[in-house]
Amino acid sequence: xxxxxxxxxxxxxxxxxxxxxxxxxxxxxxxxxxxxxxxxxxxxxxxxxxxxxxxxxxxxxxxxxxxxxxxxxxxxxxxxxxxxxxxxxxxxxxxxxxxxxxxxxxxxxxxxxxxxxxxxxxxxxxxxxxxxxxxxxxxxxxxxxxxxxxxxxxxxxxxxxxxxxxxxxxxxxxxxxxxxxxxxxxxxxxxxxxxxxxxxxxxxxxxxxxxxxxxxxxxxxxxxxxxxxxxxxxxxxxxxxxxxxxxxxxxxxxxxxxxxxxxxxxxxxxxxx
Length: 273
Ligand code: GLP
Known about the structure:
The protein is an alpha/beta fold. It is 38% helix and 15% strand.
């Protein structure tokens, strides 16, 4: 695990976007695993800039999103604010601004019928496999330590499935997203379809990004242990084969081994790059 700490959110966003841009240029038909949430907005914005100003080409890129609320779907009759689906989030904040082929973008379908759900989730997994697996998976972290929507007590072997959202997640995501759109708390979905921990751990490279003081405590627990199914991001440092963690100073502020990560980063910059 590489832990990279930068002064500000803007810096980690540029750093993250640069990793993605290099990977896409090296492998134009890359399979990307994408995330929603505020954390990655800066990276999406920067990738759009690189696309416009430096000709970063998305035409052969394939994407698989981590998750989607269950019970809602993209609805262009609603304003972007009213439509809280992750599909709309991706459309508004990224896809519509770059030359990605819509057919190569995959987001779990939040409107799939309950009786078809198991087959649907298996199909999502098979689609990832048939395309050769995810080359680079980007991840945020929830307040309760979730990755994707893998809530506390998710198995390390879990696959794409229906997940019941934790109370903390419902409160946080209502405050951060639904409430701003004028939605009532009752409007918040209680379920989501999410890639499993097992699915995420099979990605060839992973980037976990976090910003702000509100993430400092959970980041310290996730990265420095102890490993527990109660904080599903804590599976990453131990089981992910190639993980980069991007943090701003505020999100890194509670790390016990803060000095160590800074030291390693400096040595790498001096001698290995
Ligand atoms: C949601 C998503 C997660 C995301 C998390 C953090 O719950 N399912 O994938 O990491 O929010 O969101 P934010 O980046 O806004 O803090």
